[in-house]
Amino acid sequence: MKMPRFIEESRWYDPWKLPEGKSVEFSLMTASEANNKASFPDDGFTIIEDVIHEFHNIGKKPKITVGCIWRGCPFCNKARSYYDNDETYLGNEFYKKTHNIFNALIVKDETGMVESGTVKIIKLDRRIFEKMDTSRIIRLTKVENGYEVNANSKSVKVIKPGNAGNIYDLRPYRTSHDEEQIIDDFEYVMKHI
Ligand SMILES: [Zn+2]
Hints:
4 helices; seven-stranded antiparallel β-sheet; globular; disordered N terminus; 33% strand
């Protein structure tokens, strides 16, 4: 007899899927607050950076996201050469973008998709991330051109150690750094830019 296939529920919470005007409230979780804190010495890998290059509506693809490999990164090199030639617009297109990936305890999801008390992984542009007061419960509201970030003034973050379940090692959730793939993507972008 065939066993039903186990379908893993996504670990991601994608705030960009929120309808306009809707909010999600969450608090950042560090290792000290998690059941599985022993797996995270020194709080490592519970909040990480994902440095990428991203292009929208390019060729037939709605979006290409490529991991930045720093030294020798063809996209970074291209950005530099555009800037050197005063082609700022193209330089900005190629310039790296930084996202933060973190563990979040969902306090209230207005869409009702995620139950309160669930730990999810959230990825946000660094400029949004830096607006968050991580000692508080964050309220993130989808607005026309992005998000509104508010700290809930009454809700100072209170997570009792061990009460909020396990957190995830975030390293596997970074954008791939496969060099062959990066070179292929670079060729594709140059052909269609
Ligand atoms: Zn790069």
